[in-house]
Amino acid sequence: MESESPKSGIEWTQSRLPPRDLKKAMLRGLFGRCPNCGKGAMFRAFLKVNDNCPVCNEALHHQRADDAPPYFVMLIVGHVIVPIVLAVELAFHPAYWVHAVLWAPLAIAMTLILLTPVKGVIIAVQWANYMHGFDPRGDAEDQLLKTRKL
User: Fold this and answer.
1) Domains of the chain: which residue ranges?
2) Which chain regions cross the lipid bilayer (predicted)?
């Protein structure tokens, strides 16, 4: 005999959560602030996320940014630098060493500057959409699915 009736599980999974302002959360994440209050720091180091917001105590350890920030940063940096490199090559025909001296430091600098803001935005999007561990129903839903083997 199951400990939970199907009706209680269905009611739990269909309950609505209050909407969160995605734009406001993304802007806060861009500046490395807590997506909930906008005052606390999201990061305790360069890319290390605080477990909880130091101001409002919002749990941030659930985030699953994984490989998304580097992917989006490579996409952005590539789309900015490649057209400039091509324009310089067509206009001036510099030697390869000039390209290396110009573009390698620029690419590295842009990457380091963009990594933290992009990761902040991704975490804020997860928070605003109740993704991964940011959904308070997540653990109960996972347990319900495991017990029913769906």
Assistant:
1) 19-148
2) 71-90, 96-115
